[in-house]
Amino acid sequence: MAGEGSMLQAIKSLNNNRALRKNNRNGWKKLIGSKKENLEDPIQASPEVLEEIRNRLQAENKAIRTKRIRLSAICIGLLIVLFLVFNQLYSII
To answer: pTM score > 0.70 for this model?
Structure first.
């Protein structure tokens, strides 16, 4: 029968892939933090510095939020104007 060679190649390929998968399952642990590292932060921030950072981040977030609200309002207004213009154009035709 025809096709035995291609089927044999598929079986070999599956076996090879399975063998690779079995060998590499424990390999990922070596890449992801299996080393014992010191996770303590050597730089200690004072409460004043933390408050300053907090205030700065709040100001930045507020500025971003106002920009987004303005952009949304402009887009909605533009859509309404376009809707009214095209509605008038189609009512004339």
So the answer is: no
